[in-house]
Amino acid sequence: MTRPLAITDDGDLLDDLVRVAAAAGSQLDVAHAPALARPYWSHAPIVVVGDDLADAVAASGPPGRPKVFLATRQGGDPDSWRRCVAVGAQGMVELPEGELRLVEEFADALEPFPRAGVVVGVVGGNGGAGASLLSACLALSASRRKLRTLLVDADPLGGGIDVLLGQEEAKGARWADFVSREGRVSSAALQAALPAFGELTVLAFHRGQVEAIPPEAMRSVLEAGRRGFDLVVVDLPRHLDAAAAEALSRASSTLLLVTADVRGVLAAAQVLGEVRRHTGAVGMVLRPGVLEEAVVATSLDLPCAGHLADQPRLATALNKGDLTLIDRRSVLGHFCATLLTDLMAA
């Protein structure tokens, strides 16, 4: 892969740019004069021209291209904007204050084949409604369609989405490896670090003591997921913490599982009140009970995305970590396939 190009003869500025590139997971090609930059100019994913050589670069008449930035350590110099325009840059970055922005620009330019993934949240209206099961099955159904899928466990007290998949011993990173992340996460690095099974990649918790997920870490992971995956499914806790609220705010749609009985609807109404503080894109998945769909939908003022029927022998299979019962021919598998079609179309 080609590397970002830096055109500067300023040692202090170059040190800043090397640090920025390292933060974005890359190295630099460096040209200390405009003539030395010519072989790299058109092919580099991003070009950063130092303020010290901007006039010389402009005088050399390089062809126009996107992703060119002027970098300066001389904040407040009114002539910098003239040089920015002269060199054909799309923006100016003052260092070191603008390092984070430049890291983002580097990471964007280096991202291979960025996608525009759909983020779907799943939350139970009451305990035992089956949110984790639906999350896992929805992700499995997508991966069987050859959609690149990321399944994110956002419920630290849920027992582990990897256990539900029967993959708790799988090698790879867990949430504890990401809790300190505040900046951008490369989607390629995320995929390389996490356990994967075909087209399905899973981010779960370690066993034992669980650290709360900072909202900044959740934001970084979900943004990387949107860029690198076709679908991101987030298994949310009923008691929303800051990370779950962050996930809800970034979800294209959220599914609330509701059991069709009085206590189930009352509990779901409590959860829904909290969910609606962070997103308006909520649909209901109805579990069997004594109440009719119209009664539940009116009580919660929610559209029904589908009915999730019970499946015989599922509890036994789950205790064995066996999800082979969930295929296209099963009740649950057929439901997830239909639901997935609707979610991706929307």
UniProtKB/TrEMBL annotation:
Among NCBIfam families, the record links this protein to: CpaE_hom_Actino (TIGR03815)
This chain belongs to the protein called Septum site-determining protein Ssd
Query: What SUPFAM superfamilies does the annotation carry?
Result: P-loop containing nucleoside triphosphate hydrolases (SSF52540)
Q: Name one Pfam family in it.
A: CBP_BcsQ
User: What superkingdom heads the lineage?
Assistant: Bacteria
From which source organism is this entry? Nonomuraea roseola
Q: Which residues form the Rv3660c-like CheY-like N-terminal domain?
A: 7-112
